[in-house]
């Protein structure tokens, strides 16, 4: 069964300091355009992850996100003690300069000064550590692979919808080819009648033998049997490809182009209102097939 290039997958894992969340979103593209949108992934692991994404997801615009939610204890900020003491000494020295009483014994006054110092820039700082390391990498890598698997599951579900939609439209085009044939006899008769009426209007006496030859030549120029045969072949090839090729997206696009050529030629040769209306409906279905094929992996 075919897959869509549109997909989404999410997975989470718990490491010693918090929770890692991996999200992958994909859209259609001619190649594998991989965007790593996170600073958490170690640089020495990035190439390996890119390779796995390209290998498992094949094609499409692939956006890779990774977020980190620390545990409450690990989220606590640390006091830069040396900086805090430096501020305390400066405040003490400033109080001596202006002959103000500086709290040295009163617990509540000292606490008030320290509380004020803690609000100063860079006194409280977040712990700096490598979130992803050698010890927790196996769990993180497993989480990434789980997210990739979920993208593929999403793509398979979307692919089933695409398959039903596209194949239904190809079947419609085949039914329209059959419908064109119902106008064939009427169309040839109408062409013959049109030519004869022109002779009558011009009051010309035609050589019947020569007239028949010219009429046959003219009708053959407008013959669409070859176009109908080729269009049917292209439609059957489209169905065969979508059923048997594991990654048919690009090939289906090429087949749709060939279908378009035969439909356009049929329209240019039609010379019949009924057939031209059918050609318009064929083109409408074909445009939808082309749009959907762009999203097939």
TrEMBL record:
Belongs to the YicC/YloC family. It comes from Candidatus Cryptobacteroides gallistercoris. It comes from the Bacteria. The keyword Coiled coil does not apply. Residues 181-296 form the Endoribonuclease YicC-like C-terminal domain. InterPro entries: YicC-like_C, YicC-like_N, YicC/YloC-like. Its cofactor is a divalent metal cation. Residues 2-163 form the Endoribonuclease YicC-like N-terminal domain. This is YicC family protein. The keyword Nuclease applies. GO terms for molecular function: hydrolase activity; RNA endonuclease activity. It holds the Pfam family YicC-like_C. Keywords: Endonuclease, Hydrolase, Nuclease.
């Amino acid at each position: 069964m075919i897959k869509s290039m549109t997909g989404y997958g999410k997975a989470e894992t718990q490491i010693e300091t918090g929770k890692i969340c991996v999200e992958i979103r994909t859209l259609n593209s001619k190649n594998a355009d991989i965007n790593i949108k996170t600073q958490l992934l170690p640089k020495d692991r990035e190439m390996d992850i890119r390779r796995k994404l390209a290998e498992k997801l094949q094609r499409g615009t692939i956006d890779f996100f990774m977020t980190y939610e620390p545990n409450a204890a690990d989220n606590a900020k640390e006091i830069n003690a040396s900086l805090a003491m430096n501020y305390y000494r400066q405040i003490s020295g400033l109080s001596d300069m202006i002959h103000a009483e500086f709290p040295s014994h009163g617990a509540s006054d000292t606490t008030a000064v320290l509380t004020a110092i803690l609000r100063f820039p860079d006194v409280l700082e977040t712990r700096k550590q490598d979130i992803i390391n050698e010890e927790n990498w196996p769990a993180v890598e497993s989480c990434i692979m789980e997210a990739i698997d979920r993208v593929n599951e999403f793509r398979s579900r979307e692919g089933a919808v695409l398959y039903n939609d596209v194949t239904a439209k190809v079947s419609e085009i085949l039914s329209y080819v059959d419908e064109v044939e119902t106008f064939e006899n009427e169309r040839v008769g109408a062409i013959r009648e049109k030519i004869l009426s022109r002779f009558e209007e011009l009051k010309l006496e035609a050589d019947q033998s020569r007239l028949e030859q010219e009429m046959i030549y003219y009708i053959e120029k407008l013959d669409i049997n070859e176009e109908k045969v080729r269009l049917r072949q292209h439609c059957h090839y489209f169905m065969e490809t979508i059923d048997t090729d594991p990654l048919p997206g690009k090939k289906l696009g090429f087949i749709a182009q060939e279908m378009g050529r035969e439909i356009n030629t049929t329209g240019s040769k039609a010379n019949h209102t009924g057939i031209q209306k059918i050609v318009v409906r064929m083109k409408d279905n074909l445009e939808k097939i082309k749009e959907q094929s762009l999203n097939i992996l």
